[in-house]
Please model this.
Amino acid sequence: MEQLINQEINPLKLLFQSNGVHDGIPEKISDFFPAIVYVYDADSHKLKYINNKLTDILGYSFNDVQTWDSDLMCMVHKDDQENVKKELQKFNALKDDESYSYNSRLTQKAGSWKYFRTMGTVLNRDTMGRAASILFIAQDITEEVETGNQFKRIDELFNDTQELLKFGVWEWSVPDNKITWSNGLYKILGYDPKLEKESLHITPEFYMQHVLDADREKVLYNRKDHLIHHEYDLYYKVHDRNGRVKDVREKAKVIRNDKDELLRVIGSTTDITEQSQLYRDLASYKAMKQENEEFLAYGTWEADARTGIIFWSDGMYRLFGYHPETEKNKITVNEALYQKHMNEEDFKRSRSFLDSVIDGSQHPENYATEYEIKTNDGSIKRIETSGKLFYDNTGKWIKTIGTSRDITRLRQYQLGLEEKIKDLDRSNKELEEFAYVASHDMNEPLRKITTFIERLENKYKPELDEEGRLYLTRISASVENMRHLIDTLLEFSRTARSNQPFVKLDLNNVIKEVQTDLELKIEETSATLQIDVLPTIEAIPSQMKQLFDNLLNNSIKFRKPDIHPIINIRCLRLSRKQKEQHHLDAGNTWYKIDFSDNGIGFEPEYNQRIFQIFQRLHGKTEYPGSGIGLAICKKIIDQHKGLIYATGEPENGATFTIILPEHQ
Model:
């Protein structure tokens, strides 16, 4: 149709250029054209003439045209008007024997629009030689455009699909040794099909340059004698133009003629790098998991409630004494297999639990159990199993997944450790008994020594010289030190042997009693005490009093010379995070009480040593004492399941911190 119009526009132009005495012949002839014919005045931008096809194709009458004031743009689609105006300007440059065409949309009277290819030529010129009127023939190309757009959309969809799925299709014409690629294959190899498709000469040799050396024997482009099958499927590696190595899968169909001569090969190449890496990662993970199972002696499993099928990992086979590679396919993993290996009591308990889940009387999300098995080789193992149960929307059990591990050695070690703890407790008890008895029994000879010293002083002191009297004084002092040591040792052993009950105890009352007992010492040293409100906890009253007494005495004793001691007792309730930091029971309430002073302090390296019995950081002459006071504090805190620790710096004071639970 377009060719026909090209042939007819010039004769029609001659008719319209006649002197005007044509009795409407050009108009009548133009009505037979299967297109809209119109004459456009370039100066006034008006329509001078338009044929009847305007009504047939677009639905407008001549009266409609008059209402437009013959404005051509009234029938041009609004989105195309600017472009049409630019196209009209190009006709000024046309020669008399030339024509020019452009595409645009024209609107129909009903409101829809159609695509038109409009061809025009200069009909008349003015005195300046410019185009005065232009003859146009507008042909409806809507169907052609829509068909082209449809093919374009299909092509775009195919290219998008190739890019999304990372594949390309190709055809190898064997006689002329040329390959045609789709856009997808260009992109797999790192080329831009829009910019490089025309410049690249695609041949088997060009493609083979991208195949890794180790895989070239797999590729059949250079081995025509191997293309004997109708189809083939290959996996190999290529590198793109940027050197990136990719895994590809090539599937192709071989086409031969009646003489069995190779004509062409058509196929697809898919970038499977991500899938291959995923498979490699899965293989590595599986190997690592199997190594972990074997090293840590555990296995994983899944039980399907609907089918009764139980899946075992390799670790489960090893737990039960089977070799996973040689015996896996010979064994049916089911309830009967468990019954074969478990002792009767454990199996009945397990079966009872399972029945309660099936009938709905129990609905646990997780469970853990221990049982004993006899493995396939006859050895006895202790197994710990943990599982998670899954249910459908109605609450019916559908499956369980879990892990099982060999805890035989752990339980043996635990039993051995429990025996050692019993032996240690027994030994400690015996030592405590011995310390108590020895301390108690040593008081009697000390009393005798004291008595005889007093008799010596009363009867013979006048007869002794100065050196003899010095000896008696030193003996008396040593005996007094020994008595104090025995008293504190007895106090320590009584703390260890204490079986007094825990009661609710207001620590505010305890600190008041201790202040009263130390009233004279506090006055002598002009000590200042600043005390927070303390909590009420479950504790042994006598031991709490002894604890506070020892800590306050300690702060007063180790004061700086000529400086009045200031002792701060601060209390706070531990947060959940603080309990986690100290590894404390999160379900209990814990209180932290700090005893801080402005005394002589101590080196940080001694913060644990000072709680050991008989440990001293200073000489007896400088700071008298037995070295047992803080050890007693540690013993009391241990009996109350709490914590005690100290921080300090030389000449910068010390802080003793105790952490106690509200409930025992």
